[in-house]
Each structure stands twice: as C-alpha cells, then as structure tokens.
Amino acid sequence: MLHSFLSHNEQDSAQESVITRDIHRTFPAHDYFKDTGGDGQESLYKICKAYSVYDEDIGYCQGQSFLAAVLLLHMPEEQAFCVLVKIMYDYGLRDLYKNNFEDLHCKFYQLERLMQEQLPDLHSHFCDLNLEAHMYASQWFLTLFTAKFPLCMVFHIIDLLLCEGLNIIFHVALALLKTSKEDLLQADFEGALKFFRVQLPKRYRAEENARRLMEQACNIK
C-alpha cells in the first residue's frame, strides 16, 4: 500500500484541478491547513491525488479532502492514505458514490423510515414541508460529518466508525435530529435548511455538547 501511495503520486490525475480547488477550502482556519503551499495542504493534495489514481472507478469525490484531512491530523500521510483506502473499500464508503448514488439514496430512504419509527412528529413535519433527507443529510453520509461539524465531534465519529462500521452514521444522524427536534418543529422549509447548515454545527463547538451527543448516538437502537 505504501508503494502504491508513492507510485500513484507520480502519475497524472485527471482531477488535479478539482483537488487543488478543494484543498484550499478544507479547514481553512486550521493552522495546519491554512497556508497555501504549506505542509498540510501539500500532504492533503498528495493523499487526494494518490486516491484518485488508485481508485479509477470513483476517483476523487468532492468533500473527500475533509476526511483525508481528519486522518492526516492523526497520522503521517502514507498511513492516512492507507486508512482512507480502508474506509472507502472495507467500510463501504465508496459504494455510496457508485451507480449514480443508488446506495446513497437507499440510505436516505432508511433514515426516513427510522425517523418515521423513532421521531414520528418530526417525520410528519418534514413531510408537510416536503423536506427530504437528501436535502440535509448528503454531506453527513458522503463526508462522514467531517465537512461541517467541529473537529472535537468528528474525531469521536471516526473512532466509532472504525470500531462499529458505516451504520454509525444512522446513530449520529438520529441523535442530531432528536436533540434538534424542538427547533426543527418550529421551522419552515428555509428555516430548517438554514438550521442544518448554520446553527446545528455551531451547537457542537462546545466539547461537552459533542460528548453528550455521541453518548446519545451510541444508545440509539
């Protein structure tokens, strides 16, 4: 795998311009990633490029840089590449990108059925608003919550994912919906989307809130 990381970096990737654009948007406020051409951006570029060459079918997918960056904050770039490959292949994350996102839409369907079962009032409110899971949960599934949520929470999620598998996404999604239920029941369509985009990630900047949420996620059946 290490050999493939080094050799894939020497090859050209058709997606280099997309990767470069994404790198600049990945944790721009974080000390390690904020400098153009700095060590963090350089390592992140190498991981994303190597993956895009390694996995010809999927290549580089927008937002993948966030997951790579989270791994890079814990380990050297060769190891981060190997763990990224493992999450994509062995944990099944790449399946969500295949066949025109067929598997991803199946996951949205499952999330809505789980809501219907566990949060019936919120489910029917969303039905009234015509608010569908893909409108707020796409990034949750495709980037494993890494793109919008604070790192203290993201680190917990990736730990759990590596222990429990991809289903942990449903646990975290339901915990987020349960803890936000009162706010969301008051919101209209635009208000709900704004809540998911802005207020929800802000809420978990406090480490205590993130810890409580993860406890709740682990207790969901």
Number of helical elements: 13
Described by the principal axes of the CA atoms, the overall outline is globular
Content-based structural category: mainly alpha
- Assess the beta-strand content as a share of residues: under 5%
Average predicted confidence as pLDDT: 93
Helix fraction, binned, reads 55-70%
What order do the helices and strands follow?
HHHHHHHHHHHHH
**Distance separating the two termini:** 36 Å
Record field, number of beta strands = 0
pLDDT < 50 stretches: none
Major sheet: none
Based on CA atoms alone, the radius of gyration comes out at 18 Å
What can you tell me about this protein's structure?
It is a single chain. This protein has about 220 residues and is mainly α. The protein is about 70% helix and about 0% strand. It is built from 13 helices and no strands. The protein has helices spanning about 1-10, 15-25, 40-55, 65-70, 75-90, 100-120, 120-130, 135-140, 150-165, 170-180, 180-185, 190-205, 205-220. α3 packs parallel to α5 (about 75-90) and α6 (about 100-120) crosses α7. The chain is globular, with a radius of gyration of 18 Å. About 35% of the residues are buried.
